[in-house]
Amino acid sequence: MVSAISALWLLLAAAFLAALLLELLQAPRAGLGARLFQDLIRYGKTKSGCGQRPAWLRLLDVPKRWFSHFYILSVVWNSFLLLLLIQALFLSRPFPVWLQNLLSALGGASQNQDVGDKHLSVLLVLMLLLLHSFQRLIECLYISVFSSGVLHILQYCMGLGYYIVIGLTVLCQVPANVSNGKDLFMQICWYHILGIMMYIWASVHQHRCHVILANLRKGKSGKVVSLNHSIPFGDWFERVSCPHYFAELLIYVSMAVIFGFQNLTWWLVVMFVLFNQALAAVLCHEFYVNKFSCYPTHRKAFIPFLF
């Protein structure tokens, strides 16, 4: 039987796949429903594709710079979950009852299975998820240069919810009453090493791409001189319009590798990230192509050479 958490990720992935297909098929944009759809899938610079937005829709906007809130929440929440997991594994302190009940409700039958050989995978993934959120928080606060771009309040709320649920998804991969981390690091396998290397590789390139985007708005002194959009060059930008989105996908694939390639729930998370980031990349690519007549024609939107 499919667990509640797996069903949730499957539903979200299907929803974003449907949105991506509608955008690729260039569904009609006239009418209230179509305008609401466009407003919900676009944010930042791609909001310009919505045309003239009515005043009541603009009331639902929040600043794009609030992206940092996602990562603040993720760092705090997932640090808390990591602390509880470490205490359970190494100090034999069970999860709080409320968390055990929540994980049992979300994970279903998987919470009763003996997965002792997966404890290390769960620990590593939760640590990397926390590290990724910390990196993105630092980039948002000290590197990225935000303009007056906005996102819909529902997008903002979904972002907050995402970082709460993703940590719970990781913990759902071990029993709610997990304990005994003795000889934990004897479980290390080749796929743990491969996954960590892939994570580092993707994270380095994502950071480089965020620096490139930020530098488009900075002078040689490092101070912001413009909030206009320009064509980015360098690193993976030579192949795709949104390499930072592609790197995000690779980061989540690296975590699937750490789970030993066989965790169905996490592959559903990867599918959600794939369709979510692909949709954002398609809209970004459309913005660049429409704004810059000299935009490189060989660049794909999201995945080098493919899409």
Automatic annotation (TrEMBL):
GO terms for cellular component: endoplasmic reticulum membrane. Belongs to the steroid 5-alpha reductase family. Polyprenal reductase subfamily. It is found in: Endoplasmic reticulum membrane. This is Polyprenal reductase. PROSITE patterns: S5A_REDUCTASE (PS50244). Residues 190-307 form the 3-oxo-5-alpha-steroid 4-dehydrogenase C-terminal domain. Its EC number is 1.3.1.22, 1.3.1.94. One of its GO terms (molecular function) is polyprenol reductase activity. The chain crosses the membrane at residues 66-91, 120-138, 150-172, 184-202, 249-275. Pathway: Protein modification; protein glycosylation. It catalyses: a di-trans,poly-cis-dolichal + NADP(+) = a di-trans,poly-cis-polyprenal + NADPH + H(+); androst-4-ene-3,17-dione + NADPH + H(+) = 5alpha-androstan-3,17-dione + NADP(+); a 3-oxo-5alpha-steroid + NADP(+) = a 3-oxo-Delta(4)-steroid + NADPH + H(+); 17beta-hydroxy-5alpha-androstan-3-one + NADP(+) = testosterone + NADPH + H(+). Plays a key role in early steps of protein N-linked glycosylation by being involved in the conversion of polyprenol into dolichol. Acts as a polyprenal reductase that mediates the reduction of polyprenal into dolichal in a NADP-dependent mechanism. Dolichols are required for the synthesis of dolichol-linked monosaccharides and the oligosaccharide precursor used for N-glycosylation. Also able to convert testosterone (T) into 5-alpha-dihydrotestosterone (DHT). Residues 1-19 form the signal peptide. Keywords: Endoplasmic reticulum, Lipid metabolism, Membrane, NADP, Oxidoreductase, Signal, Transmembrane, Transmembrane helix. One of its GO terms (biological process) is polyprenol catabolic process. It is a multi-pass membrane protein. InterPro entries: 3-oxo-5_a-steroid_4-DH_C, Dfg10/SRD5A3. It is an enzyme of class 1 (oxidoreductase).
